[in-house]
Amino acid sequence: MEYIEGHAYLMGDDINTDDIVPSHTLTMREPIDMAKHTLEFIDPDFVKKVNKLNIIIAGENFGTGSSREEAVNVFKLLGIKAIIAKSFARIYFRNLINTGIPAITLNWEENNFSSGDLIKIKLKEAIIENESKKVKIEFKSLSKFIMGILNEGGIINKLKKRFKN
Amino acid sequence: MSFTIAEKIFKSHSSSNKIEPGQFIEAEIDLIMVHEQLGGRIHKEYEKLELNKVWDPNKIFFILDHWVPAPTISAAQMHQDCRDFAEKYKFVHKMGMDKGICHQVLPELGFSRPGMLIVGSDSHTTTYGAFNCLSTGIGATDVVMVFATGSLWFKIPDSYKVNLSNKLNDGVMSKDFILTFIGDISTKGAIYKSLEFHGDGAENLSIDSRMTISNMVVEAGAKFGVFLPDNNLEKWIQERTKKPYNIVKPDKDAEYEQVFEYDLSKITPVVAKPSNPDNLAYIEEVEGLAIDQAFLGSCTNGRMEDLRIAAKILKGNKINPKNRMIITPASKEIYLSALKEGLIEIFLESGAIVTNSTCGACIGGHLGVLGQDEICISSTNRNFIGRMGDPTSQIYLASPATVAASALNAKITDPREVLS
After folding, report:
1. How much is the ipTM here?
2. What's domain B270-415's architecture?
3. Which residues of chain B lie closer than 8 angstroms to A154, CB-CB?
């Protein structure tokens, strides 16, 4: 996992896990049924937009709240490729990495991104290129440890290998 | 080298020789708590590994608490998935659905002891920090890793020292302190940090009060919220278990990234306005706001001291019929104690509804769901949009005293006025 390309979906600060997966959906048996409700209280059209806008760019404290990993899984099911945020809530960061979704911490500014911008992420070089705005932004590279998990596609794959050997 | 509590406990649970903030380590887990999440993502993910056992069925604490008894068919099916998994993998500590809320029941039964490293499939697992152990919430894939290997990856956190002095005044509770702290530091102010609570003010707090603080540190983003050990704590532990434990104190010259000072005698009743726990307001700013529901309960505030102060306020009075009050004791043990003390009778006489122990109302699951545009004053921990029901409903977080006082008037009320 070194190169990711997609279009920006912009969000604000403190997007919490109840926003992402409202609790009334939590007992649903099929993950895809749950995914249909993603962000329904704050952007009822999100599920329609997500086909095109598949890199989330958010503000501070993204994913705050519950430990519910469903809040990561619905994004994965809907095709979100990476999340860039000014900061991540601790459990949410773990859940993203553990399930193989890059979580990039970047203190971005208003003029860096607009909704729909074409974004290219080079994880190894720790560079984000906004093709639409023709700007390059460096971010603090993910640690070797974190990259190790992402390169395996998540912890489950890593565990599978460990138990095979 | 000198160490904080977090560093010391990680040191005793890891073979890594480098214990310093920012370092990634793998640590051995003493206990893992799982609830309905087991029947959500966890069981499906675990089956992918095709292992026919878990690392240690004796170190798993399994309880059903979020949707008990099941309010819907899908919740009932989730419970079935949980029970099947617990049976298949021979879990030893199966609590069923009658005991209460995980973060109350686990400590009551002596499972959280000083020096331990505990994780749980719930963000409020930080609660056990009140017992001088490291405990924190993890996601489903993390649980799978612990079930398979008994260990988990961690980043050693920086620590913040929070010095507490003096005592809370009458009508002011530890909830008012932690809401004030979160308001001051913000919901992102302690992301990934270990908070250590020091000082005579911390020692003056009951174990119940400490649990409320450790419970809500996660609302400031913290990884841990740990108290120093003292005689009160050891007495509490020894009344509940004969199992051994190791108290952990930080080294005198341990390094803290930040130090905060709070004089508890200066704390006054506060609320967190919708829709974020750091949206702090003094009670004077919101007094008189009409409410539809007052909720007392949850892992944050459903303990004996919470019920006692509510009973003191409600005794001989009637709840204003313009609103409803719902009281959910945090565990069956608490429910029974409250019954023996006559508190339940006081609640019922006052017009409150008393429910079984569950997370129900706090997560908008059942037993207190809010309708369109309704306003609730609640002793719970999160006031996010739609948290307790309809997305247009609004939640004001407050102490049990403020909740009970407000229920009497069907509007937000300063508990000091009712108590004096």
Report:
1. 0.96
2. 2-Layer Sandwich (3.30)
3. 141
